[in-house]
Here is the input.
Amino acid sequence: MRDRFGREIGYARISITDRCNLRCVYCMPESGIQSLRHTDILSYENVLRICRVFAALGICKFRLTGGEPLVRKGAVSLIARLKKLEKVSVTLTTNGLLLLEIAQELRDAGLDGVNISLDAREPSAYRRLTRGGDVQRVLAGIDAAVETGIPVVKVNCVPLGEESRENVLQVAALARDRVIHVRFIEMMPIGLGSAFAGVDSGRLREWLEREYGSWTPLEESLNEGYGSGPARYGSLPGFQGKIGFISALSGCFCENCNRIRLTATGFLRACLNRDDGVSLLPALADSDDGRLFADIRAAILDKPERHDFIIQKEAARGMMSKIGG
Ligand code: SAM
Ligand code: SF4
Here is the structure.
């Protein structure tokens, strides 16, 4: 399924909850947010029904996200059921706090990969950034994910500003002794994130190279082997895992954007930073899938050309915890 700019859409990020067990400073207010009522959240039956239609349209890569997807009961069995659809891959983005206990079950459910968000390794820095999180649990969860054999384990780190240098170097070092790929993501001016400067990929690369030696980018064709996303991967000397950069601002990747987003309330969003999209609830009320196909197709055809972060720097649209990152 292509949009009107010829981009082939093959990847859906599916938020299954807006709730979270952390309060990261750039994502959620300390007091939390007014949570959606359970009745307003898509049932797993409806998530599966939508995913069946996605798959029929050639959108076969699914990533579960949130809020924190692992706080919703039954997330593992949803993964197992999604994996029964033909030709699909199912991955997960998590803060990793519950991963240690659940890694084996995720592996048994057939999970194809997990991305773990980690902005600092030092316990007090992590606690400050997440307002209370225990980094040891996350680190143990990362190791459990590798040991159980979940095929691809990645760590995502969003540096806040110049003061994040030590955190960046320490998080990058995870890829030195383990086959884990660490990606650094530029802060996007979305929700609370618009209050932070972030660090652009060029500066991050400078920090890493000064500490660890030259970062050598992978050839274009090899780079694609690391997923369907916008990360630009490369290697640092002696590192087992790759180091990637996701440069949403300094290197707009909208031209190759292949994704759509489904919120926990059933709204299909065609672009992270735009409100354009369609609620799939009316279509779900029909007993056949005709309208579901039509509404999804229409939303994809209408996908905006680009995110306009720069133009709308002040807009600070939506909350990332509701959109799913
Ligand atoms: N709770 C899960 C987690 O933290 O991985 C999944 C949801 S979270 C919204 C998904 C990702 O979005 C996280 O890696 C988080 O760091 C990232 N994120 C949140 N706000 C962001 C922002 N303004 N700019 C860039 N990334 C952001
Ligand atoms: Fe929760 Fe993830 Fe947002 Fe942190 S980034 S508050 S873990 S949803």
Observations:
- The longest helix spans residues 135-148.
- Residues 20, 26-27, 65-66, 68, 93-95, 117, 156, 158, 185, 187-188, 190, 193, 320-321, 324-325 surround S-adenosylmethionine (ligand 1) (CB under 6 Å).
